Amino acid sequence: MEATAKKIFRVHDLGPALEPHRVAGKTIIHCHGVFDLLHIGHIKHLEAARQLGDVLVVTTTPDRFVNKGPHRPAFPEKLRAEALASLACVDFVAVTEWPTAVETIQIVRPSLYVKGTYPAARTASRRQPPCEAQALEVPRRISPLLPPTW
């Protein structure tokens, strides 16, 4: 539990925490999402993202901005952060303060932003949001690893 807790940061503390890695020339990978009902598709996505660099930062959307239907998120943000931090492939975790990853990408300044795919079957209001990383000129990779039912 102690090792897991050491991976969880306030979002504004991520920048300073990552600076030594940046100075050392490490490749910082950033993934962002709700990560409610964490499942094998999420885990494979994060493991694959970790293989793309040296440090994996995972941020999650705060409860107040989760729009996945009634009674969601099923797990509050603190528990979602703990679940993510418990994964061996994850180095840093934070709950953001905003509905999208734009501000967080500006804080993290990743080498690469890795986002999962969005199934075509989603309704127009639930399709992929505007490309956060593209707007900030951060290299971005779409992962095909998430199953179409997530």
**Helix content, binned percent:** 25-40%
How many independent structural domains? 1
The chain-level mean pLDDT equals 84
Helix/strand class: alpha/beta
Can you tell me about this structure?
This protein is of the alpha/beta class and 150 residues long. The chain has a single domain, classed as HUPs (Rossmann fold, 3-Layer(aba) Sandwich). It is 30% helix and 19% strand. The chain has 6 helices and 6 strands, in the order αβαβαβαβαβαβ. It has helices spanning 2-5, 14-23, 40-50, 77-85, 102-108, 132-135, and strands spanning 8-10, 28-33, 55-60, 92-95, 112-116, 140-143. The chain has a 6-stranded parallel β-sheet with strand order 1-4-3-2-5-6, with helices on both faces. The model is unreliable at 120-131 and 144-150 (pLDDT under 50).
Write a brief structural summary.
The chain is of the alpha/beta class and 150 residues long. It is built from six helices and six strands.
List the defining traits of the structure above.
150 residues; alpha/beta; Rossmann fold; 6-stranded parallel sheet; 6 helices; 6 strands; 19% strand; disordered C terminus
Topology:
Blueprint: H1 2-5, E1 8-10, H2 14-23, E2 28-33, H3 40-50, E3 55-60, H4 77-85, E4 92-95, H5 102-108, E5 112-116, H6 132-135, E6 140-143
Parallel strand pairs: 1-4, 2-3, 2-5, 3-4, 5-6
